[in-house]
Design brief:
Order of helices and strands: HEHHEHEHEHEHHEEEHEE
CATH class: Alpha Beta
Shape: globular
Oligomer: single chain
Distance between the termini: 35 Å
Strand order of the largest sheet: 1-9-10-6-5-2-3-4
Number of helices: 9
Largest sheet: 8 strands, mixed
CATH superfamily: Vaccinia Virus protein VP39
Strand content: 15-25%
Length: 306
């Protein structure tokens, strides 16, 4: 049987992990073959202490950990690559990209979270060669040249639009944050008791306030159609999303419906499952009805084929 690593030869991109060198034909990332394999396992646990103790971002009701972003940024970009997050929220994507020495641009419709993200980036910025910025705009306008006119830091093409090496984001999970979690002491109820935000707010352009499910999927599709225009050829996008159980007692397959909609413009490449081991359990349907404790999210992976 042929050795998977027999054609991996050293080159001038050194590897500090002690697991070999980067293949000279690797144009996607800076990983060795063994590091590549580890990053393609279809599930990962990401539940770090840093995530739970990051009090600044508690102000945002739905966030993912920087460590999750770093996992994908390292796989889908090389050093000094350009990363985009169209729903940047409290800035997890941008902070993680910055820590991995990637250029990063976020977009956010809520001015409060724009300022929060900029503050976090400023506190982290050490390398002046790395470009970071947050655009205050509706993500549905991401492919409009006018959206980028005031962003001097990002290079643009002749059509007035920038091009990115990687897109990673987590959109609103429909109107889930506005719905009751039942009678148990959920994180949602804890946040309400502590006076923290429990949804994305009342901004008129907030996609999480769209009540019609099909319209919500289509409006997210508009955003990701725009992201497709901004992706360089053969580059990737990761969308973190979860299926949603509605109060009527059934599950909306949000992840799968969104994958189908995005596949109109980008090629679906599969998924990795982000598992949360330390998330609190709730006894939701006891003693008559099966209601799952959702401790996983789908990291849907798409590729620009053009």
């Amino acid at each position: 049987m042929r050795n998977l690593f027999e054609d991996i030869e050293p080159d001038n991109r050194s590897d500090n992990s002690g697991e070999g060198a980067v293949h000279p034909g690797n144009t996607l990332n800076d990983l060795t073959g063994k590091e590549w394999i580890k990053a393609t396992k279809s599930w990962l646990v990401c539940d770090s202490r840093r995530y739970h103790q990051n009090r600044d971002t508690e102000l945002h009701p739905a966030r993912y950990p920087e460590e999750l972003v770093a996992e994908f940024v390292r796989f889908f970009t090389t050093g000094d690559g350009w990363v985009l997050d169209p729903f940047c929220g409290s800035g997890a994507t941008l902070v993680a990209a910055l820590e991995e020495h990637r250029n990063c641009i976020g977009m956010e419709v809520n001015r409060h979270y724009v300022d929060l993200s900029l503050d976090r980036l400023q506190a982290k910025a050490r390398d002046t060669r790395t470009v970071t910025d947050v655009v205050h705009a509706d993500a549905r306008e991401i492919a409009a040249p006018g959206t980028w006119e005031r962003v001097e830091a990002v290079p643009r093409e002749e059509d007035g639009l920038p091009r990115f090496d990687f897109v990673m984001t987590s959109p609103p999970y429909w109107n889930m944050l506005r719905k009751s979690r039942g009678g148990v002491a959920s994180t949602h109820k804890r946040r309400a008791a502590e006076g923290l935000a429990t949804d994305y707010g009342d901004h008129e352009r907030n996609l999480g306030s769209i009540e019609d499910y099909d319209e919500f999927i289509e409006q997210l599709g508009v955003v990701f159609d725009g992201c497709a225009r901004l992706l360089k050829p053969q580059k990737y996008m990761v969308v973190v999303v979860q299926n949603v159980r509605v109060p009527e007692g059934y599950v909306r397959p949000l992840a799968w419906d969104l994958a189908r909609r995005i596949s109109r413009t980008l090629s679906f490449q599969g998924e990795r499952i982000w598992c949360q081991n330390s998330k609190r359990l709730g006894i939701w349907g006891y003693p008559t009805t099966f209601v799952p404790n959702y401790h996983h999210h789908y990291c849907l992976i798409f590729r620009q084929q053009d």
